[in-house]
Amino acid sequence: MTDITRYQRQMLLEPIGETGQRRLGQSTALVIGCGALGSVAAELLVRAGVGCVRLVDRDFVEPTNLHRQSLFDQDDADRATPKAEAARRKLAAINPQVAVESLVADVHPGNILKIADGAQVILDGTDNYETRFLINDASVRLGLPWVYGGAVGAEGMQMNVLPHTAAEDTPWERAGLVTACLRCLFDSPPPPGSQPTCDTAGVLGPVAWMVASAQAVEAIKMLLGDWASVDRRLRQWEVWSGRTGAMDIGAARRTDCPCCATRRLDYLDRSAGSQTTTICGRMAVQVLPQGASAEGAEELTPRVDFEKIAAAIRSQGAVMVTPFTLRAELSYRDEPLCLTLFADGRAIIQGTRDVAIARAAYSQFIGL
Q1: Among 52, 181, 184, 198, which one carries the catalytic annotation?
Q2: Which of 125, 178, 187, 364 could form a disulfide with 33 if both were Cys (CB 3.0 to 4.6 A apart)?
């Protein structure tokens, strides 16, 4: 049996107590994205004794992450360690009582339902609206609450989604506590380039920590089943000036919402994903191997022989192989590129936003 004495200070809180602590220990939280928000929120959940914390991230650690992403250090950046794996190691050391699962993968329509299986809440640690709209669809399909968060510049936002479901049998629906879903508020993602990003507007580390802390608090309420205490507002902070704001999103729910009202799950029901994706706010493109499809679940068993590929391209530039990635500094058409290849054949190519160049470089050097 788990020794819960380490949570003694937390159990002194009346809404938790020993019963609540044991309930947390039997719960599973899914954190999608292990950047500034996801790393902090995941750490808080692990320290709080949530029984299983599942981490999913497609990216690797870079030096520019370190001022705000709490679970990573310089060695992780030097080795370009996948964020999900680096986070798992640190979290397992923080609290060995918690089962920390990591998946180095791109979340897409073909795998999100499998990834969310068994979770009681989803925390949004992503950096793009496309994935958030996909999380929203999965939330409505599964009847699973999720916790949105965003931070850029000195501004942060956070809200909870307690979705309306077809069966109308969730505890928050029975209590009349349904909120708006993401598509009730925003019918579609904003056009590319229309919103500031961390790379264009910067980000203050403490803002991300504030938002992630709010996300962790709300997730804990949900895992405890304290639905009446879950905040039903979209909260905003501008920490430099000290301005705050909030909007009631319970009242903002649309009866004509294409997602939670009419059950049109456009982002989840897409039959196939793009082979190339420009990484939000970065001079980088993600490339999937030929034949990969969003319909297929992400494979957990490595398919790529890093050493074989390294031997083939080592004459073209500097190559570093780790158990999780192959990283190569290469030149394509006289343009310097940095290619990071993952075990599933997926690659992130830095140095270009041109998907044609990224795909051609991938084909030339990797050939999958």
Answers
A1: 198
A2: 125
